[in-house]
Specification:
Radius of gyration: 12 Å
Number of domains: 1
Oligomer: single chain
Helix content: 40-55%
Length: 91
């Protein structure tokens, strides 16, 4: 559970530092949130990288954190990584 807390903390700090003025964390990530065929909300690793403005070194660290949290693949469960309650949009 420590790794999950660390992942969320990392995402929040990185996103906060890269957010447009007067934008909440949920607003910042919700545009990228989609739903899969089972109706589960997800965000892609690429979206996380873009929103958090991660360079290659930080992308590798983020991948390590995701693996520690047992989150693998390109689609990361939106609720599990603590970014929001549900998707605002669907694909």
């Amino acid at each position: 559970m420590h790794a999950m807390h660390r992942l969320r903390k990392t995402l929040v700090i990185r996103a906060y530092n890269n957010r447009p003025e007067n934008t909440t964390l949920e607003q910042q990530f919700s545009f990228a949130c989609k739903k899969n065929a089972k109706g589960i909300s997800f965000i892609t690793k690429r979206d996380i990288q873009t929103i958090c403005n991660l360079d290659m070194k930080n992308i590798e660290a983020m991948d390590e954190l995701l693996m520690r949290c047992r989150l693998s693949g390109d689609q990361i469960d939106y609720k599990v990584c603590g970014l929001g309650d549900d998707a605002k949009s669907s694909s």
